[in-house]
Write a structure and sequence with these properties.
Strands 4-5-6-7-8-9-10-11 form an eight-stranded parallel beta barrel, surrounded by six helices. The radius of gyration is 24 Å and the shape is globular. The mean pLDDT is about 90. By secondary structure, it is an alpha/beta fold. About 40% of the residues lie in helices and about 15% in strands. The chain has two domains: about 35-115, 2-Layer Sandwich (Ribosomal Protein S8, Chain: A, domain 1); about 125-380, Alpha-Beta Barrel (TIM Barrel), CATH 3.20.20. The chain contains 14 helices and eleven strands.
Length: about 375
Amino acid sequence: MVTRMQVEVLSNSIDAKKYIKELGVDSGGISILSSKASLHILSIRDLHVGAANILKQDALSIGADLAVPRGTVLARTPEVDCILIATTAQLKTLGKKELAQPFGLKDLAHQLQEIVKVKKPLHVDVMGVINANDDSFFSESRFRSDDAIEAIKNMINDGATIIDIGGVSSAPNSLSVEVEEELQRVQPIVDVIKKEKLYEKCKFSIDSYEPKVIEYALKGGFSIVNDITGLENDEVCRLCASYNATAVIMHMQGNPTNMQNNPSYENILTDIYSFFEARIQKAESFGISDIIVDIGIGFGKSLEDNLTLIKHLGHFLTLKKPLLVGASRKSMIDKISSSLPENRLAGTLTLHMESIRNGASIVRVHDVYEHMQALKVQKEIDNI
């Protein structure tokens, strides 16, 4: 009996190792084959033209490729931008091959070696948002002390593993608040969290850059400091270190009063990566061991900037720190599909699920239940 061969087109987002293992492939071949199934597209800027020509030939020799501008082979310009297209296995080979090459290719080789070591997180934390102020851009996230505790308990029941509490709005054009006023807003909530030992049920984060407010929260059982200034204040660094707290370093261009006045970058991925490198080094110099980086969606970024950061979030995985994304109900969604904050849940879920696919391990959300449901559904899809 003649049977017809069948070809099935599989998604390129599958767990290749799982599928290859199910075929009964020899254990030694599983890792080798799966590394050939992952494709990397790397943008390399300002590469020495001599290095580009060498890398082009080395890439072609192993089945990878390097896209270069016209005239590169004739060295018409001293430096070029190019795009390297290679599998994980090919990057490993190039990472060894270029170590012996001139024109800065040794440095590139080290970067390629770091890239192939990166692994996307297996677990995602959902951080619920509680605002103890009257001017948060999303009215349904505003709570007074009694209502806030009820909302916190509901978020914990819905699956939140972190809850972020702040007393000052950081939305564009928001006004600053005196430290005493900020402390007065969050103090009753912190006191109840401490009294009822709610910190035993989930982690609590204080959304502040004021040392006095931060220290009060840390004394009340909080274990995370979410600083939108990215640890600009040395005293905040000292507090994080002395209380062994996790520090969230967020990127912001400017400050809330002016950050959306025509923000611009030379290269947004490179500029923000350099910012994180410097601030991580500062944090570690103070003895802070647990660090999370937040790309700062909406904080001094255009719509294109925000989308670029989410699309290419994997660029920041080589920092080897958990990545946090907070796009919940933000105005970037309104710029894509006109809507008020209360109608932006669908857009929020899309942005956050894309962020998770690209390497985020924490999402800061107003809607815990809906995010937990989306994550459970996505997990089932990934397990197929």
